[in-house]
Amino acid sequence: MTDKKEYLSLKWGSLKAWKLNEGGPAYTLMEQYFSEPISMSAMLQRDTDNQKRLILEIIDVVDADEIYLHWDGKYVSKEDAKEYVLNYGKN
After folding, report:
1. HSE-up (13 A, CA, CB side) for residue 70
2. Contact by Cβ (8 Å): 55, 15
3. How far, in Å, CA of 2 to CA of 16, rounded?
4. Rg (Cα) of the chain, in Å, rounded?
5. What is the pLDDT of residues 22-70, one digit of tens each?
6. Do residues 29 and 57 make contact, with C-beta atoms less than 8 angstroms apart?
7. Cα-to-chain-centroid distance, residue 74
C-alpha cells in the first residue's frame, strides 16, 4: 500500500517544499501557481495576489492534516498556515 498523504512547507510567506499527488487538486493548483513568474529562491519570491490566493487554496485542499512552517520548525493547522501566508511581512 502506498502513502497518499501530501506534504506542504512554507517559508518567508511563500512555498518552500511540497509532495503532492500528481493529478490531485493541490497539484492542479500548484501548476496554476507556477504559470506565473517565480524566483528559484523562496526568500526572493514576491507572490502576486493571485499566487497568494492559490497558496491559500492549496492549503485548503492538500491531503495533510498540518502544514510545516520551515522557518519556525513546526507544524501548524491549516488555518494558522493561511494566517501566516496572509500576514507575513506585515507590521
Report:
1. 15
2. yes
3. 24
4. 12
5. 999 999 999 999 998 877 766 677 889 999 999 999 999 999 999 999 9
6. yes
7. 14
Q: Nearest to residue 10, comparing CAs of 79, 73, 91, 90?
A: 73
Selection from 3, 57, 66 nearest residue 31 by Cα: 57
CA distance 83 to 55: 11
CA 84/CA 24 separation, integer angstroms: 24
Residue 38 vs residue 88, higher pLDDT: 88
Dihedrals φ, ψ of 8, to 5°? -145, 130
Residue 18 pLDDT exceeds 50: yes
CA pair distance 2, 33, nearest whole angstrom: 27
pTM: 0.89
**pLDDT for the residue numbered 77:** 98
Domain boundaries, the chain: 7-87
Contacts of 73 (CB under 8 A, 6+ apart): none
